[in-house]
């Protein structure tokens, strides 16, 4: 699985820490971490949590990433921004039990973490335990076990609801403010990472057009 890491501007200074903990946990599981930044608070390309959502949607819908780890100060804004888009099911994760139950009950493809609120002594341990519970085993297996069938049924229903309540991503990208979208895809390594992994030609063409605008 290819896991994308995205940090917005208020918490960009923590990118290196989050990346190191994430890699420590998931690389032995056989997963790959791709860091889309921001890499530091001084990065030329500044991402807002809204742009985190745009970038997450592009990566997930195009197949350039299978999972997104993102966040902001409280995690709430990044979660809301991600869930504003089709093909993204993002949970707000504070502790390891959140991570485990989101993976098993909701079977999402993105999480938003609070990188300021409660991020104090032992924060790196909390991140480690969250990532362990999030990515261990197969997701969508239900919790508690006697709730497996209705939980899996509800997840499928939600996926179908989102297909109806959201239009396709290319239409959305072309309708949004061009500078907003271009800012989300102008990171230092975005083109290098994205075009090498993108599996959707229509989204790739749209992104290329936006970058050249």
Give a brief description.
This protein has 213 residues and is of the alpha/beta class. The chain has helices spanning 15-26, 49-62, 76-83, 96-106, 123-135, 148-165, 169-175, 178-184, 190-197, 201-212; strands spanning 2-5, 32-35, 67-72, 90-92, 110-114.
Beta-strand share of residues: 5-15%
Q: Strands of the biggest beta sheet: in what spatial order?
A: 2-1-3-5-4
Mean pLDDT: 97
Provide the gyration radius in Å. Answer: 16 Å
Residues in helices, as a percent range: 40-55%
**What is the straight-line distance between the termini?**
32 Å
Describe the structure.
The radius of gyration is 16 Å and the shape is globular. α2 (49-62) packs across α8 (178-184). The longest helix is centred in the C-terminal third of the chain and has 18 residues, at 148-165. It has a five-stranded parallel β-sheet with strand order 2-1-3-5-4, sandwiched between helices. It has 213 residues and is an alpha/beta fold. Helix content is 52%, strand content 10%. The chain has helices at 15-26, 49-62, 76-83, 96-106, 123-135, 148-165, 169-175, 178-184, 190-197, 201-212; strands spanning 2-5, 32-35, 67-72, 90-92, 110-114.
């Amino acid at each position: 699985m290819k896991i994308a890491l995205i940090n917005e501007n208020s918490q960009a200074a923590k990118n290196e820490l989050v990346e190191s903990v994430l890699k420590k946990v998931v690389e032995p599981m056989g997963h790959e971490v791709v860091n889309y930044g921001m890499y530091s608070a001084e990065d030329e390309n500044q991402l807002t949590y809204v742009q985190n959502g745009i970038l997450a949607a592009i990566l997930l819908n195009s197949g350039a990433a299978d999972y997104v780890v993102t966040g902001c100060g409280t995690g709430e804004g990044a979660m809301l921004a991600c869930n504003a888009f089709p093909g993204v099911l993002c949970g707000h994760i504070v502790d390891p039990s959140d991570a485990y139950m989101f993976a098993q009950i909701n079977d999402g493809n993105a999480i938003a973490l609070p990188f300021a609120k409660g991020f104090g002594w032992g924060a790196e341990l909390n991140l480690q335990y969250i990532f362990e519970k999030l990515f261990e085993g197969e997701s969508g297996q239900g919790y508690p076990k006697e709730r497996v069938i209705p939980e899996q049924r509800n997840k499928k229903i939600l996926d179908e609801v989102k297909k109806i309540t959201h239009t396709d991503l290319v239409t959305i990208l072309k309708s949004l403010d061009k500078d907003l979208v271009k800012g989300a895809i102008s990171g230092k390594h975005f083109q290098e990472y994205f075009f090498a992994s993108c599996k959707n030609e229509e989204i790739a063409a749209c992104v290329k057009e936006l970058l050249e605008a």
